[in-house]
Amino acid sequence: MILCIISFTEKGIRLSERIGKELEKDGVDCALFTRWSGAAGEAESRDGGKEKRRARYVKESLSEWTQAQMQKRRALLFIGACGIAVRAVTPYLQDKLKDSPVLVMDETGRFVIPLLSGHVGGANDLALLLAERTGAEPVITTATDRNGVFAVDLFAGKNRLWIENREGIAKVSSRALSGREITLSIQGNRLKADAQVPDGVRLIPWERRGRVDAAVCEAGERADALLLLRPRPVVLGMGCKKGTEAEKIDGLIRQELKQAGIPLHQVCALATIDAKREEPGLVQWCGEERVDLLTFSAGELAAVEGTFHASAFVRERMGVDNVCERAALLACGPGGRLILEKRARDGMTLAAAEKEWRIRF
């Protein structure tokens, strides 16, 4: 996850720097920005010299900056007034299941408030993490959280499940909030070994299911349920030449997946070599599709066992004979299998692998 933190005062900058250092320990990649005019130059160090600020001064308008980050589906933390955040993000809201997680924190670090995408986007969990690391008080307003009942959209978000019929979220949540037991059926033996079923939820064996509140099942499988949730087990592996536009990447992915009969909503991640970690087209595509971007070193890729479509040119440039197939399999972990072998077009290569999926609470 990339968390973009923007501040508006010198005090806010200091808080953002502290947050960045703390969250790095939890594997959260923080990008610091500020609109404080005093940050346009270098900062005075304690000994009277100059030092580089960690927070980058944003020259464009706050609206333009916000639009750019939300297009990439990055999480946003505004250190300032709620009104600033609300006015900044409102023009760019599209869909509650796709909008970026948005949080607000006052510059004294006393409160942290998730404003958007609390469950599916993970803003509530991020608020709790920020509270734990900074001592701030999390202000959580979602009804299921406040009442301590099972939140089916949070469950879907944690398990990276695709929600087929979004209207079912409100129906299941309404039942939970009224104190009713939620029945859940999961195709196959897919629960993680250490999964603890929460209070208020009753698991129904797939073979004996009738009508249930929610069902987790693979593409093409049907169930009589208020809410249908689908696993996203597909990992794409990709290589591309420098400067490849997101539109070209999107075109190749959609064409090849369609021909292979793989729905785009089954994709959970795109994997590549670490030299492409900041490739703008890949970063943009992953952000727009809410897909994780995973990167590996040439050594890690070379260690993947199997038979791959090797390229001497790629080996010379990247230090490994194949990126797309190796990266897709490596990202899947044990049990992964190739379901789409290497495809190449216009300086891009694409492969797809399928990983074993498991459910946790």
Structure description:
With 361 residues, the protein is of the alpha/beta class. The protein contains twelve helices and 19 strands. It has helices spanning 10-24, 62-71, 82-89, 123-134, 143-147, 152-158, 167-177, 246-260, 280-289, 298-302, 312-318, 324-332, and strands at 2-7, 29-34, 43-44, 50-51, 56-57, 75-79, 102-105, 111-116, 137-138, 162-163, 182-186, 201-203, 212-216, 225-230, 234-240, 267-273, 292-296, 337-345, 348-354. The strands form four sheets. Strands 5-2-1-6-7-8-9 form a seven-stranded mixed beta sheet, with helices on both faces. A five-stranded mixed beta sheet has the order 10-14-13-11-12, covered by helices on one side. Strands 17-16-15-19-18 form a five-stranded mixed beta sheet, sandwiched between helices. The longest helix is centred in the first third of the chain and has 15 residues, at 10-24. The chain is globular and about 55 Å long. Mean pLDDT is 93; it is low at 43-49.
Task: Fill in the keyword field for this structure.
7-stranded mixed β-sheet; 19 strands; 25% strand; 12 helices; alpha/beta; 5-stranded mixed β-sheet; 361 residues
List the helices and strands and how they pair.
Blueprint: E1 2-7, H1 10-24, E2 29-34, E3 43-44, E4 50-51, E5 56-57, H2 62-71, E6 75-79, H3 82-89, E7 102-105, E8 111-116, H4 123-134, E9 137-138, H5 143-147, H6 152-158, E10 162-163, H7 167-177, E11 182-186, E12 201-203, E13 212-216, E14 225-230, E15 234-240, H8 246-260, E16 267-273, H9 280-289, E17 292-296, H10 298-302, H11 312-318, H12 324-332, E18 337-345, E19 348-354
Parallel strand pairs: 1-2, 1-6, 2-5, 6-7, 8-9, 11-12, 11-13, 13-14, 15-16, 16-17
Antiparallel strand pairs: 3-4, 7-8, 10-14, 15-19, 18-19
Helix pairs in contact: 1-4, 8-9
